[in-house]
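Predict the 3D structure for this chain.
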Amino acid sequence: MRFRPHCSSLFFRELACYLFALIPLFVVIVSRGGPLVFLLIFLCLMIADRERLTVGSFVSGCRGMLSSTGGVIATLIILWCLASAAWSIRPVHSLAKWGEVVLLTICLTYDVYNLPEKLRPRHLLCLAATIILACFFLISEFNTDLALSRLMHSRTQPAMFNRSILILLFLSIPFFLNARKGALLLPVSGRRKFYLLVAVLTLGLGLVGCFTEGDASLLAAAVAVCALLLVVSAPRFASVCMILTVSVVIVLAPISGMITDRVFTNATYEALERAHAKERVDIWKVFGSVIYLRPLAGAGFNSSRFALADQKVRSLHFSPAERRAFQSIHPHNGALQIWYELGCIGAVLTLALCINTILRISKLSASSYRQYYVYFATVFAVSVIAHGIWQSWWLAAIASGIVVLRAFAVLENGLGESSTSSQ
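Done. Predicted structure below.
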């Protein structure tokens, strides 16, 4: 029996929604599996929306994005990244990585704009349930010395789960921020169950936090709480505070390692030994020390992983410990990575994009402003102490939380499928 077009579209729409709802289980099995899931979701959405996808709608969408200030700045950053490949340490590698990041960004952007309007309460409940299952899977792994992971030959150290835990937290933040609102979206008989679900979700993440060795997820949770308290108590001051914080962090990124090393005492390093704080600060110091070699244009897109292959860097005298720090595949600081790879021009463009994003968030309704403010603060905090900003799993992790935030907004406003024509 042949599928009718409507039935076929409905099938792929539901498939896309449930693929997203199962992301927590995917990422605890394969921590870098997020981009693949979003690619599958993109293909499902393309098939489901094939009847309304035309060249005209594509051009109209691109024109709409480029007409905004944020879209123009983002496009300039993408073009500057491409141009920087010309003087990159490994041009072919930079071009390949640039193409990967651009294609993934296109997929993620399409998913972020089109998936939320298709998600229903049942999908969000399924997502919350899979986050809980993923949390208790992690707890069981930590308590059995990674028995199942060793059996599957996938992970041999608890630190390998750090990415997965961070993704689970990003997916959970919208549930915490919409706990009351989410309950109102369900039938009266299901409200208590939703509150219970959020409570169990909190318990699961809390227990995982007790076992994790990752400092990024713990910092993210702390920043989310602090940002929420600030934006609730002083919403107008919160935006100014965020702009100042982002500006200081990005401008001072080249000397962030030196500043941190002077602030941290030996006791601080010992307390943060499990998070490898000393090693991370050493990485910031060595990358910051060579930015002056190419201060304006940088070393080229995604060149930080090949820093020791740079003739200018190799000509300088570094101790064996400093050379080991250069062997890191990225500086573990997004702002510092921008300075090293894209120079002052890239840093200015990135700062402009961040400020524009904060200003746009501040113009949202009070409820949306609080939620996106907390989420932006959390993502930014993690980006400047861990992970590489061009890593595919990291881009997918950021997009996953935005999808859930937008899904709650769509459900609250009762838009659903009717909002398709207005997107």
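The chain has one domain: 5-52+68-252+332-413.
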